[in-house]
Structure formats: C-alpha cells, structure tokens
Amino acid sequence: TDKKQILRLSDKLEILRLFSSYRENQLIIVTREAVLQYDLKGGKVLGQTGVEEGADIRQVVIGKDKIALCGKHVLLITSLELELITTVKENFSIQSAYWEQDSLLFYTTKNHWKYALPNGETGVLKTLEQPLHLVRKLTDRKFLAFNVTKKVFEV
C-alpha cells in the first residue's frame, strides 16, 4: 500500500514534509537536502532538485508547467519534473504564492506583495501594512486573501 511505501522510504530519507502532486499516485517529498517527486506505483523518484541547508520548504504551488517551492526565505521555481529554473532569496519570510500565468508568480512576504519571473527577475508590487496570504484570483485586478487574524478580504 501507499502507506507502507512511504514508511519504507522514510527509513532511507529524513522526510520533513509531504505534498500531493499534480499527477495521480505521486507525492512531492521534502527532505533537508532535496525536494523529490516520488511515484507511489513505480516506487521510484521521478525528479528532484537540491535545496540549500535551512531552505525549509513549506509550500508547493503548482502551475500549468512550473512549480514554485516556497521556503522561509527562499523561492525555487522549477519545471514540473523539479528541474531548477531559478532561485529567489528574500530577507523577509515568504507567506504565500500564486501562479497567475506560467511565467508570472505572485508572492507575498511579511512586508510586500511581489512578483517573480522564471528568468529570476523580481519586483515589489505593493508594500503591505500587515502580512497577507493570497488564495486565488477573482478578477484581473482582484485577489482573495486572508491575514494573520484569518480575516478574508479582496485586494
């Protein structure tokens, strides 16, 4: 069963977090050294990308043809096979991320609403009064978000 496979794998790796993948019967596994795409049926690693020590990947955001791996102070943009495309380092904690298009990632830090492109370009869209977490796009210019008090609102 899937649970037995994960337990066997955890004997070999120090698994920090598990995320469901965009593909059926696959998991995204976060370890201290790498993020792996694991096939439960085949029992093998299909793709992986290395991570720096302390990256602390906390969120996986899957787009149409890219994946954003969000750590506390690092954002990795990869292909769907977890081949590294670019790395963005942040001074403030990354709170959330949302793929607008495959080549445009919106993300928030403790103090800013930002964008990142696969070529490594980033920019500040707005300074935030308080941290917010992007949930989904409502219209061309409005997003659904929530803040630290769990209040849901439009931005």
Tell me about this structure:
The structure is a single chain. This protein is mainly β and 155 residues long. The protein has one helix and 15 strands. It has one helix at 2-12; strands at residues 15-20, 26-31, 34-39, 44-50, 59-62, 66-70, 74-79, 84-89, 94-101, 104-109, 112-116, 122-127, 132-137, 143-147, 152-154. It has a four-stranded antiparallel sheet, with no helix packed on it. A hairpin with a 5-residue loop joins β1 and β2. The longest helix has 11 residues, at 2-12. The radius of gyration is 16 Å and the shape is elongated.
Provide the descriptors you would attach to this structure in a database record.
mainly beta; 4-stranded antiparallel β-sheet; 155 residues; 1 helix
